[in-house]
Design brief:
By secondary structure, the protein is an all-alpha fold. The chain is built from 8 helices and no strands. Helix 5 packs antiparallel against helix 8.
Amino acid sequence: MNPANVTPEDLQDPTIDAETLRQIAVARPDLRDVILQHPNCHAELADYIQQLKSETPPPAGQQFQPYEQAHGQQQWGNQQPGYAPGYASQPPVDPSDEKTWGVLMHIGNLLFSFIVPLIVWLIYRERSYTLDQQGRAALNWAISYIIYTVASLVLMLVLIGWVTWLVFLVLDIVFCIIAAVKAGNRQAWKYPLSIPFFQVNI
């Protein structure tokens, strides 16, 4: 994606990753406000764009330079640009890695409860808005499922607990599989019946 040709309509694509957004923000001051509204514009990127906006603006009528010319590159994307001071210490997660870790997060949620989504979320929440939201959703359900299971064990004394335990067991399997499929498309999904311990913006 050449920033010289990007339009505000192009930035409506939710699959554009944070690093591409950063590169466009560097070359296109006129699109920075639009980039700030993008779902993959995480906190560090937003702070970085605000720093760019606070710098002295170019003289009136001055045209922006394409990113390749400004940085001496012949082709877009054939070189990893450096990170400016104040930007995230690690680069955003690659879209293919987002899919992989997202799927593993929800499959791990099914097999090992909250442990896997917690680990993945803590590692990648600052580098990927998608994984951040997926992790929050997965943890909400994992904790809720534990609560529902404990309540079912108590209710087993009056028999109905066996029914609720079986129902939530089936729901856990179904919900985790649906969430994993959604993650394969880089989409976050709120588990139904989950208690909102963590806010999920979907």
